[in-house]
Amino acid sequence: MSVSGRVVKPTTRRGKRTLQKREPQVIEDPKRALFLKGRKTSELVRRALKDVYQMKKPDALMFAKRNDITVFEDPTPLERHCKKNECAHFLLGSHSKKRPNNLTIGRMFNYALLDMVELHIESYKSLMDFIGPKMTLGIKSCLLFNGPQWDESDDLKMLRSIFIDFFHREQIDAIRLQGIEHTLSFSVTPAGIICLRSYKVLLKKSGLSIPRVELEEIGPRIDFSLRRTKPASPDLMKEACKKARELIPHKKRNISMDVFGTTHGRIHVGKQEILRIQTRKLKGLKKTGEEKWAKQKKT
């Protein structure tokens, strides 16, 4: 849009295709995440950013240089970067004397800041410190949230929603047992520490039809604590959660399903007059002379 407020139409086919891709789609592609560093970062923050970037690839983009961004004071530069690179999520690493080893994770809606949470890295063990197999590129992770605290605090509810949206990939309707190869576990301790663990799912022989499941930690291992939060406004969140009309299931009339999963249908039939139904003229259906005489006598 230009300064005068008029809409500038694309002059090339490539520009038209680019604008069409940025328009809302009925079925969205996997959301990309932007990884970037703030004014100053520590070695621990850089390694943590790199490990989470490896878990998010290929739907991720990482900036190598530092950026003069203070997202809680002015989110405009971050919104500009996300719009230019078509990223719906971001993870910003920073380090200062007041807030050391800091990670800020958040979401965008219509290339404007929706909500975000600031996390402090309490302890960290890198992905390279674990010996063994690593994550497969583009794998769909199973997310586990342990602890009743996730439902007791509004900040943790928002953080859980951000984590689910951040690590979500393609929408699937069914999955086979062997397709669950990796899981991410998020646990909250009574002290309020958020523990992130990454496991490889191993299916062992059990002598039964269901295999025995074992978890092997493959890293990274990060413990967080909550700092600042910025929730979305109710109106903006309602608009962001709006579904396309094509995806809303419409209820079919006169069709219902019982508790056993059986579908029942109701058919409306008009009034039937059996005496006026035309039948085949067979000898066995003809009236006899006595029946005709009795009918004339009644009339």
Automatic annotation (TrEMBL):
GO terms for cellular component: nucleolus. It is found in: Nucleus, Nucleolus. It comes from the Eukaryota. One of its GO terms (biological process) is maturation of LSU-rRNA from tricistronic rRNA transcript (SSU-rRNA, 5.8S rRNA, LSU-rRNA). Keywords: Nucleus. One of its GO terms (molecular function) is rRNA binding. This is Ribosome production factor 2 homolog. It comes from Dendroctonus ponderosae (Mountain pine beetle).
